[in-house]
Amino acid sequence: MKFSTQEDIAMPADAVFDALCDFESFERAAEKRGAVVRRTDALSGPETGMTWQAEFTLRGKPREVSLQLTELRRPEDIVLDISSPGLDGEVTFELSGLTPGKTRLTAGIELRPRTLAARLLVQSLKLTRTSLMEKYQARVAEHVRGMESRFATGQTG
Predict the structure, then answer these.
(1) Is it true that the peptide bond before 46 is cis, omega within 30 degrees of 0?
(2) Domain span at residue 90?
(3) Sequence-distant (≥ 6) Cβ neighbours of residue 46 within 8 angstroms
(4) Which of 91, 109, 15 has the alpha carbon at shortest distance from 50?
(5) Domain holding 56: CATH number?
(6) pTM for the predicted model, two decimal places
(7) Coil, strand, or helix at residue 114?
(8) For residue 78, which of 20, 38, 137 has the smallest C-alpha distance?
(9) pLDDT of residue 155
């Protein structure tokens, strides 16, 4: 199952890449939505090999996922692998410079079930795909507008 959306951002590609590498902001956003997120590596800055453990509730059940930053190519790509019992996936951010001050972000999530229980979960998600896609697009757009606002005022994080 795949979700993907595009947003044009009024920022240079390097600035968008730096904002997307502010992983602490993603951790805070997940925690505001009820998730528990822990960094599980000892790396100092944004680099491949960074890892997280996250716990949250989905479809009324507690879920646990591990995330690992597997690709970090400035300023084009950021890829995180997702792993949980029965389910694997990938989160991707692809950047394309449109003009020196404008960048297109393509954000995607792909989920691949490995067990029957995970297949049933993904199937239930497919039944509400339209509303989930709308929520996903709205969250990405909200995050992008926040990045633009912080960039315009010279703030980071």
Answers:
(1) no
(2) 2-152
(3) 21, 23, 69, 72
(4) 91
(5) 3.30.530.20
(6) 0.87
(7) coil
(8) 20
(9) 67
